[in-house]
């Protein structure tokens, strides 16, 4: 009894010391960041006052609108920024448990809503989101919180069919998100997949390890659990392994999967798909908890992703994130899991990458081209509210695309029929916005949006890494290089307040609340606005 009390007291002290260390770092960085953001705000305010008023990028009376969930996350703020740049009214939502949400202070967010927490009030949450969607009549609905999937799925089932949800949901989500059923599906699709078995107690883990030809393994919960996302490697030492497995509390209601451990480099891909066609695609290096994202070219992963989308027995719409690791035995890259939702890799896409324009262009091909059918809600073959003609997109579309001649990117000819997936625009010197993002034999990527930003980072995380590795010159050089050459994920010179709020209000409040609850944590994740073990 006394020993348990002593252990709990020691754990509480460690939590408080770690929390105080993070808060002290935050306090030390506050004044420089405040001065920087204040200077940016004053400068942009003066420029707006002296300059010409910004022209409305909408060309008609139809207002484009998007509803973005999980507003506390960096990727929600970035979604709002790139949609706003294309003339959308941006609605961002987050549950009440978050205090001082950074995106609520963004000049790129038109309306911010606080929602009931669905884990406590599921019916009120669904009703609140449905009310928001129905009142604003958006073109796109973007849920992003993995813990709210089943309630967001209820919303998606009830909203107008013309509001496009950019999230995989329902049975498709369950199949892809479940690491075991995902691997089983890959085998049916004749795609590479790692060995994977479901385990519900410690004895099953031991049996699998004893009978397997492999020596090292990883253990992951089937259902999303941020606490067990980083520490997934099963220890080889018997004593350490015992306590590790017991801490997972496996059961029939809380199943895990055990996989052979791949020791090669890890990568992640993030792909936006509309009706089985790739709109945007990016690949980044990765790790269990990755606090930077860097855009790379990787032909093997590109090929695998496009093969999966092509072979999938159905039409996918939404974001797909795949994690890959390389096997040292055959040098092949294996998909270790699928996260059927948007990844923070998405933040690598910038306004100039025209991801939203590619998405809009893809909307034209969802149904009948002539008249636009009801696939592009609010457009109904009359006017499509695309950006101004200087950007090369359709302006004042008049009910039929055939014979429309003027405002395609670099296009001097007419839009000829478009009976195939490759969108044959004749006499085109500019990009064709190829809605079909791969060729018929699925061997190469054509015109899917790719990110122009090469690397993003989170400032406070980099500060913590530098201070905790003062004795490691190589680490310091590496992360100073990241700060010098990369882009801060939340900072925008024209919208600097969210950066200040995230680092000095939202995350400190979360840490203070955690000090009261005495929940152990090892990582402050500024990317996903969470504390992880």
Alpha carbon gyration radius? 24 Å
Sheet with the most strands: spatial strand order: 13-12-9-10-11-14-15
CATH fold label of the domain at 64-167: Rossmann fold
Largest sheet: 7 strands, mixed
Count of DSSP H/I helices: 13
The succession of helices and strands, N to C, reads HEHEEHEHEHHEHEHEEEEHEEHEHHEHEE
Mean pLDDT: 81
Structural class: alpha/beta
**Low-confidence runs (pLDDT<50, min 5 residues)?**
54-61, 367-444
Shape annotation: globular
Ends distance: 26 Å
How many β-strand runs? 17
- For the record, the CATH architecture of the domain at 64-167 stands as 3-Layer(aba) Sandwich
Q: Which CATH class of the domain at 64-167 applies here?
A: Alpha Beta
Topology:
Layout: H1 2-50, E1 64-68, H2 74-85, E2 88-95, E3 111-115, H3 122-136, E4 140-142, H4 149-158, E5 164-165, H5 170-177, H6 179-188, E6 196-199, H7 202-211, E7 217-221, H8 238-247, E8 256-260, E9 266-274, E10 277-285, E11 292-296, H9 299-311, E12 318-326, E13 333-339, H10 355-363, E14 455-457, H11 459-468, H12 473-485, E15 487-488, H13 497-517, E16 523-525, E17 530-532
Helix pairs in contact: 1-13, 3-4, 5-6, 11-12
Would you give an account of this structure?
The chain is of the alpha/beta class. Among the domains are: 20-37 and 458-532, no CATH class; 64-167, 3-Layer(aba) Sandwich (Rossmann fold); 195-260, Dna Ligase, domain 1 (2-Layer Sandwich); 367-428, no CATH class. It has 13 helices and 17 strands. Strands 13-12-9-10-11-14-15 form a seven-stranded mixed sheet. It has a five-stranded parallel sheet with strand order 3-2-1-4-5, sandwiched between helices. Helix 4 (149-158) links the parallel strand 4 and strand 5 (164-165). Helix 3 (122-136) packs across helix 4 (149-158), helix 5 (170-177) packs across helix 6 (179-188) and helix 11 runs antiparallel to helix 12. The longest helix is centred in the first third of the chain and has 49 residues, at 2-50. The chain is globular, with a radius of gyration of 24 Å.
